[in-house]
Every structure is written in structure tokens, then in C-alpha cells.
Amino acid sequence: MFVPTSFAPTASATATAATEPDQPPTPKPTLTKECGTDLTQEAAALAGDGKTGNATCIRKQTRKPGDAKTSKSSKGADARLAADICGGQATISRSANCVIEDGILLIFTVPNGVVIGSIQYTVSSLTTLDYASLRWTQSWHYQANTVAGPAIPPVLDTLVYAEPQCLANCTVSSSGLVGGSALPGRTHSATTYFQTPLSGSSWQAHGGIRYWFYNAAWVNTSSNASITTPAVHRCDNVLTGYPSGCVYNSVLPVHDVLSYRYPMYARHLSLAINHYKMKSILTRTQDENLMNRNYERSCRENVPNPMPAGSCDEYPFKSTREGAYSQPYGRTIFILNINGNSFSCGATWLPVRAPNDSGGYSICMIPLSENLLGGSDLGAFYYKSRVIDGDQFQVRVV
């Protein structure tokens, strides 16, 4: 079996590369399958079309979110440099998705299917959404890591091209195209601006960066095309009073309740979730009737007049499907610690109930300023994370 010899191209070697055209040669390749496990079959198919010489194809592996390891096909500092756009690892959040792909371009003989050279590379792409806009960006970066094989045109004269491609409900508003040497020592970066038209109340949109390799010395001058795509995202126009925007709705958003910001409010939620094991994952509702019923059931029915000091705070929130109207009963919270310290929610018209009785809703009388601030922060969270009717989210006290 032939084992290619790795080398770093010298200045004289790279000077022999073909002149880099400003625009990709035409026709452009179509998206096709990656290299099969048996290159002899692909070589035989090309030979059957009367072709002979050298051909190529791409194999790639996409890293999973959270995987910061460097694959066998991308070694050393160059691979890490290519991944820097992603902070070193593939990630996805409610507003951003970073994709890292490790690939290898194989150059093989026709009709024999023998590999004579290869280029190992890393592609990274950061897509950033806007919760207040139907426009998003995708930054794309190519870095060759190693090249192997003899210093001949089918290896040295290889170029890489990339361009944006809309995949669902989008247009390209502006873009920087990529075109140039695919060898180590050269990096290529571009940023594309996509946008999606207003399309009803909620819809999905998707874009990507399509790339391929080119060499005039190959029997087919372009390799099979590949495409770097983030996850499909959702855009909506259903948050009344706010502009339309987009998020990765496959990611569960987390609402952090800050203990230092509103101590009583945070204490109520922390005890409800952590001590009484009430649900921390809730489902938002935008049904005004249900929200009113939740509030009536929790903070209006059976509440003494005059109301005890403080402001009535309910959990689960009235803006969720798990609110008081859907619960069989309510509870207040009273905690007496071993050292004699206690915490009381002061809703004396409701029973305390046992900690292992995790059903129902809870009521706590807290300072009005904290209740208003907590509600304001929840509304801002709904907007910035685009949590719409039917979306689940997690409540976390920190």
C-alpha cells in the first residue's frame, strides 16, 4: 500500500501553484456523497467514462458540541488555530452555533484508485443569530494542517473555494467569498450575512457555506462539494410589542434567578424547586385567559382582605402552563433550621405540606420591588431567548 510522504511546501514549491482566479471556475460542482471506503470503485467509474490521470474526493468528520479533542486528521497547532473561531470546541447555544469539521482531500489515480497525495484540513464556522432581527451572520474559516505526497501539480496546485448557500427561507444580503491555495501556510476566512423574510408567525430558516477544491490537473477539475451547516433555527413574529427575531429552539433556554439581585424572590424559588422538588422546567403560555386564571387562582382566591404585608409571588409563574390553574392545590413555605433560624413565606391561608409532596403551586409574600424586578427580568428573558407559546425553559437560582 502506498503511504504518502508528508512535507511542508517551500516558497519555490508554492510558487509553482496555479494562478488563483478571482472567481471560482465554472461549472461549479454539485453536492455529492463523500469518498467511499473503496476508492478503486470510484476510479473504475471514472475510467469507464474514458478518463485517466488523477482524481479526488473529500472525507470529513464533524465534531460534536463540547468535543474539544483534535481528531487524527487534524494535528498540531494549525488545527487548533482553525478552531479558534469556536473557542477550541464545537458549541451550540440559544443564539450561536459553532461547527468544526476535520477533513481530508484524497488525490488518487485513475483507473487504479491508488492514493498519491492528501491535504488534511480543519474548517470552522460560527453562526450568530439575533433575537431582535431576522438577519444573522456566519463566519467561516479554512486552515490546511498537513499535505502529503510528491511535489507535483495534482497536489501543489490545489485551490479551495467557498461561497454561501441558502438552504431554507433565506437570502444572502452580503458575503465575502473564499478562493485561493488549499495548502498549509494559507488560511481563508469570510463572513456572510443572511436574512429571512417575514413568513407568518413562526418558521424555520437555514443557511450554510458550500466549499470545494479545484485543480486543473485533475480529470474532474473540481472535487465533490461539501457544505458547512449550523443547526436549523427558528424565527418568529409572535412577541407582541417586540421586533421579530431568531433562536436555536432546539436548545433549552435557562432563566437564571440571581440571589444577590432579589434575595426573597430567589429564596422562594430556590425552596420551591430544590426543597419541595417542584418543576424547574416549565412551559410558557401566551394565552391571556390562562395567565389570568393562574393569577386568580394563586393570588386572588381565598386571599385574606386586607392582604398580609408584601407582594404575592407565585411559582410556577402565571405565564406558564404549569401555573396555579392547572394545579390541584396551593402551599406556603416555612423552613425551621436546626440552629433555630427560620424562613416563612407568610401565606398563612395555605398549608405548608410535606417536602415530599411535590405537587401544587406555592405562594410567598415578598417585597414589591423584588416581585416587580423578578417579573421584569422574566419578561426580558422571554424576549432575549425568544421563548414563545409552547416553549419549555429551565429556572435556575444562582
UniProtKB/TrEMBL annotation:
Cross-referenced InterPro entries: DNase_NucA_NucB
Deoxyribonuclease NucA/NucB domain sequence ranges: 271-324
Comp. bias (Low complexity): 1-19
Region (Disordered): 1-34, 54-75
Compositional bias ranges of the Basic and acidic residues kind: 64-75
The protein's name in its UniProt record: Deoxyribonuclease NucA/NucB domain-containing protein
UniProt organism field: Nonomuraea bangladeshensis
